[in-house]
Specification:
With 155 residues, the protein is an alpha+beta fold. It contains four helices and nine strands; from the N terminus they run E-H-E-H-E-E-E-E-E-H-E-E-H. It has one domain: Small Protein B, Chain: A, CATH 2.40.280.
Length: 155
């Protein structure tokens, strides 16, 4: 009996796929406060301009905006606070090595709940140049055109 993963996406970083080549992805747990979890369940998160860093063999998520919980009072959280990401030490070492050797950066692609736990999908990314972005758009348009022609032909 295989258990199906239930993926309930809360926030996605669409801009990441436009601005970066995503080489590899990693699933990391998020260390959150109570009101942050409640805000995430309401979908009050924004990953635009956020990134991850490694400091003292620990990984942290910076600039991820999880809005203040509307029903929270004095116990509410800081929206842009630095959040710890939970990864295995070997994964962190591997990511640190790749970042220093090849000029990669760590970008959060998505925040979601998996079996009741908040997870972040972190991508090892390399920045695109302007001509790379134009090439990507051109490829998407040509693919869309081919699909449209095939669809008309099959009628």
């Amino acid at each position: 009996m295989t258990e199906k993963k239930q993926d309930t996406s809360v926030a996605t970083n669409r801009k990441a796929y436009h601005d970066y080549f995503i080489e590899e992805t990693f699933e990391a747990g998020l260390v959150l406060q109570g009101t942050e979890v409640k805000s995430l369940r309401l979908g009050l998160a924004n990953l635009t301009d956020s990134y991850a860093i490694v400091k003292n063999e620990e990984m942290f998520l910076l600039n991820a905006n999880i809005s203040i919980y509307p029903q929270g009072n004095l116990a509410n959280h800081e929206p842009l606070r630095t959040r710890k990401l939970l990864l295995h030490k070997e994964e962190i070492r591997k990511l640190t090595w790749k970042m220093t050797q090849k000029g990669f950066t760590l970008i959060p692609l998505k925040i979601y709940f998996l079996r009741g736990r908040a997870k972040a999908l972190i991508g090892l990314a390399k920045g695109k140049k302007a001509f790379d972005k134009r090439d990507t758009i051109r490829e998407k348009e040509s693919k869309r055109e081919v699909e449209r022609v095939m669809k008309e032909r099959n009628r």
